[in-house]
Amino acid sequence: MADDDPNDPKALDGWPIRRSRLATVAQLHALGQITLAYNYCEETAGLLFARCMTTDQQFSTKLFHKLNNRTRIDLLTAIISQNEKNEAVKSALFQFLVAYDICTDNRNILMHAILEDAGADLLKLSKRASNDPAREIHFSVPLTELRQLAQEISDTFVFGLKLEVWMTHRIRGDASDALPEIPPKPRKLTPSPPAEDQ
């Protein structure tokens, strides 16, 4: 195919050039959406972190950005457990944290993986195990699943943002009784079985 062939699923308006085409346009579109949606999700987690901390907001924001995700989630879980008296709010915050944790894991897998093959509807990736870099983990992710992951990250950040707005209104004394609707829990990316098991 020519570099500008409109039928090439790995090119958009002839870009990228042939030797740089790693995945289909649809797969790259989904991965880009995942990246941007996750950045909003992380920012929303930071807003909730600052909202739940009993310290100055500027200090809380700086602290959030100095911590890794595991520590952020563990610290925020401890703070919510200790300080939040409303059980419905506590449950909603915990459900956000569970979803955020899953979104973080999924995003990390996708953003740190190496592409093995990109068929029209299936992305095959490999990633080194974080606890054993000598071991590779393989993932086969259909395009429909990539898009679902992107949507779940978006749903998580929108839920977290609505929750933060609700909490802001509570501080002002004008919160409604109804908390934001909790979206379904995101699904975790799971490794493909080893080749001998397939």
Describe this structure in words.
With 198 residues, the chain is α+β, with helices and mostly antiparallel strands. It has one domain. The protein contains five helices and three strands; from the N terminus they run ααααβββα. It has a three-stranded antiparallel sheet. A hairpin with a 2-residue loop joins strand 2 and strand 3. It starts with 24 loop residues before the first helix and ends in a 26-residue tail after the last helix. The model has no long low-confidence stretch (mean pLDDT 89).
Short note summarizing the structure:
By secondary structure, the protein is of the alpha+beta class.
Write the layout of secondary structure elements.
Layout: H1 25-52, H2 57-66, H3 69-83, H4 87-112, E1 114-118, E2 122-129, E3 132-142, H5 143-172
Antiparallel strand pairs: 1-2, 2-3
